[in-house]
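Course assignment 3, question 2. Fill in each field.
Student: A.L.
Task: Predict the tertiary structure for the chain below.
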Amino acid sequence: MAQLQTETSPKQIPPPKRRLLSEKAKNALSGYLYISPFFILFAIFGLFPILFSFYLGFQRWNGFGAMEYVGLRNFELVLSDPLFYKSLTNTLIIGIIGTVPQLIVALLLAFALNSALIRFKNLFRVSIFLPYVTSTVAVAIVFGIMFNNQDFGLVNIIIGWFGIDPVSWGTTEWGVKIAIATMIFWRWVGYNTIIYLAGLQSIPNDLYEAAKIDGATIYQQIRYITVPMLKPMIIFTVFLSTIGSLQIFAEPLVFLGRTFRSEGITVVLYLWREAFVNMAFGTASATAILLFFIIIVFSVINMLIANRIGK
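Answer field:
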């Protein structure tokens, strides 16, 4: 009887194996694996150099020997150097000359390209955007030839038609700044134009039609419809332009060469000279840290001003 009960009793089913990861966790893990190459590369080539620069700012190092901790000595050397303040002044002046007119002209060009009166719009869009994809070094070389110091330079010939004496663009205080600012203007105006044009094309025409029915003038349409709707693009371009204008490097380096003339030296060029000419990586890193905080301050100020536009 006991044997019969044993034979007829149901077999014990083993408990199901517990999964190590749920389906939701597997999906999340696969997503992180797909985006991990960016974060790995950024950590190696972006985050590590930033953190190392902050560490190096408190060291004395020539790039080869042992490091020596000097505390705030590097910052004292930079802040007591008149050339640093000259480079900061040059950077601000060149940035203002090359950036503010650039944003205004870009907005006007975007309005023109968005107008129904302009023909061959695609051709003009490509032509305006072409300088942005051109090599910075090539642009600086071409403009270096145009802004030649001699009387036969292209720009000197053009201003000579209006009775203006030739300018020594590579040696005078404002000549250097205007030449470099012109390069920056020419290279970036098309980029900002395309951004503004995309913003204009995203504004619904119903808003303009309703404003016309209510009797709004063109100025009122721009003030109360176009500018407020373009505010995100304006903030974006102002933010990028602020950062870019404070990091000007290739244009003055190619235009002036390794002379590092005080008329056109910028903060990044000053930093580069400290690191790769004077072999003072400590003061170069201290300059980079100071520039980092300067960029933060100017970016916040510009964003506060841009946020008020359209209100």
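Instructor remarks: Strands lie at 59-60, 68-69. The chain has one domain: 73-308.
Grade: pending
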